[in-house]
Amino acid sequence: MFKPDLHIAKLILFISVFLLSSCSSDDDDSDSSDQTFSVALSTESFEVEVGEQFEIELTITKDSDVNVSYQLNELPDSGIVVVNSELTLVIYVADETLGNGSFEMLFESDTMSLTKTINYIVIANQDTTTDIDIPTIPAPTGSSDDYTIRFPSDYLTIFENESITFDIKRNYEQNDNIEETFYFNAYNVTGRVSADKSQITLKALDGNEDTYGEVTAVTNALGERHESKMYIIYFNKNRDLTTNESPLIALLDTDITISPYSSTKKVFDIYDPDSDRISYRILSAPNYIGTHINKTSTGFDLTINTIDDIDATDNELVLEVSDAYNTDTYTFSLVETTTTTDTTELSTNTPPDVFIEKNVAISLIKKMDGTETGIVAELAFATLDAEDDNLDVSVSSSNEDYTFRVEAPYIYVSADDLSDLQHDQITITASDEQFDSKLTYHLYISDNYAEFLGGNPNTAPFTDLPTSIDLLEGKTVEIDFTAEDFESHSFELGVYDINGESSASITGTSPDTSSSPITGLFTDLALTIAASSPSVALTTQVTVWLEDIFESRREHVIDVNIYKNSAPTLTLESDDITFDEDENVDLTLTVDDFDEPNLQPTFTYDTSKLNVVYSNGVLTISSEDLTANYTGGIDIYVVDEFGESDTVTISVLVNFI
């Protein structure tokens, strides 16, 4: 048994055993008449200590032209199983679970298959040292008590032969007493951690198929073990293109407005003139958010879950896209929304988990052959919510030709014809009304194209307008914006509102379709939105549409949150003062009105006895020359434009001197 130093083990690269047909060949000319082989293991039972690993030599005897594929037919009861890329070594890594267990390995060729069952016993660590110093470790920051390594996204996509480096963050300061281990379980992808443990570099090797894998980061602090996981989707290049044209992220605005302890969605598109497929990933993100990217029928959705308090000094999110040869990088600025909402209760809720149901499925990749019809796929998922919230599960896809039936743990995917499928995505969303968590499956047919058509489909014009605004009842807002067509096609735009609770118009160009189309880029535009005065607060919608001359259309929906006016409030340091005739008294006076932040109070008092000056939130009170003690008062009044008001009175006693 090989028993490695744990500090070295943190950097050992593993190869995923989760992929079906991971070592199979696509050579259709191989002779399948005699595809026999044999498999031998150095042992089929062993003991291993908690947290250690055990290596088993694997020997496959076959002719050189025999293709043998491998999969983990039955998962271990605990721990992790991996094999190397040459199929010569099986590695079992034990977790903290004691006792017996087993796992089953399935080997297949075109004409035969065989299974091997390996039994193991996980035993307690044999170190008998009794004098143990319990280390002191600073508590993690944020809302979680777990020491967590945080990836910039829950999954990424990478092309064959690409190398990418992304940041990793923590909710704690690195400490020698916190053990960290990284596992790279991905076929055709190797990984390494930087010397300072702030970044991970993945390198994708040659391959013939799309594959699935995982990066797992494990922390062990004070005996508590916590796993963080990021899925890896490996894209085979599909065709050997040579190109100097980079894909472009079709966005004008760099700001994303986020709210504490909630989900935000940013919609974007990608234009690439000479490639048929795009990989994408978040390279860096603050440790107080989680992210997910999925393709839709009209572009891409970037979902951001704000899971901890927002740090305004750490607000950059870096997105990279690639066509396997060239990349484009876009840096967003995360901006916290201005709100008076108390987030104390919100902070106790965590996002739901939606993940692969590994008793049923072992990959987010689903290879199709194009002949399927009716129910074309059964996708397995599971959900977990720490607070036991009711979860709403929905399904969307990058192709509108699919229909879905949800019967947990399955999503039944139906379609009439898959013969034109190249690569589609199906996304499962679990929502607890505060957070949206997503899991994306990838369906594909390898090399399913007739000819290269010269790039992605025509991209609809787009705009940098926001997707949500807050507007006081009866008020009007004007938003300057830019509209652009990435291919410089001529286009038209217009606006309509949904239900009459708001109205909208565009200035800078005539929005009606009879006007001359705009060409390429238009920067001198303004959208005016007027809110009604509903009886209760509500959300309505305004839609700006943009359509180019090739009828590629985008509808940009803006949620208009119309809120009711709230009365202003006066907050006074003291409402009862006594001072001598030759003294001044300073009192703090605050006027709070979310809608009219510059609202000023008025004062009523006996001007023959008192002087009152109000400046920058400070009320200064003094007296005139008196002939006797003075007892009186100062009435302070504030009223907003809706007639809502507040009043306070100061009782005043001035001693004659």
From TrEMBL:
The keyword Signal applies. Keywords: Signal. Residues 1-26 form the signal peptide. It comes from the Bacteria. This is Cadherin domain-containing protein.
